[in-house]
Task: structure prediction
Amino acid sequence: MLRNCLVVAVEGTHASGKTTLTHALAAYYRERGVHVACVPEPARNSPFIEEIVVHGRGEFDVETEVDLFAAQLSSQLRVARQHRMIICDKTIANVLAYAWLVLPGGPEGPDARVLKAMETFCEAWAYVYDAVFYCCDRFDQEQIGDPYRSKVLDIQPAADRVVRSTCATVGQTIYDIPPNMPTSARVAWIAEQLTELGLDPTTR
Result:
């Protein structure tokens, strides 16, 4: 929890339906009178990612990954100040997982000390997320007009494995969402799980 704000995160690899689900889940709780907000994935607003992906200048580097890590934290902290509930489009462990995948040498490479520091922080911060739900489905990654996935089209299976293992490494408990469900069913399933966990925001 952040300042008495319920923190729910939706995890998974890219093109697993995280963003769609966070917005649908927020709409579900708004309709029930909960003051809730979505915390978007910061990569799409990152000037570093824009340079690399949209303009094709440079490659993923440690500066890009640290900026994304900090932005994920900052956006969650700032939104939590003003709401009873926030629904995060992934956790900071996800940022670490992708950094392991895209930086040269991964956790054993030249940026190992920085990645280890990020891992240690993720371990210390895991308690903040009251519940983390994992999207098991994988949808079409190639969407018309969306250049942001072009650099990671070939790593979705690896990303799925690494995101899962990273969450386990840092002590982040995740609840797998049953696959092959429409968004409305996913929302209903998560709402039921939150109730069973004693985290129903409509009764808090």
In short: The first helix runs from residue 18 to 30. The chain has one domain: 6-196. The beta strands are 6-11, 36-39, 85-89, 131-135, 175-177.
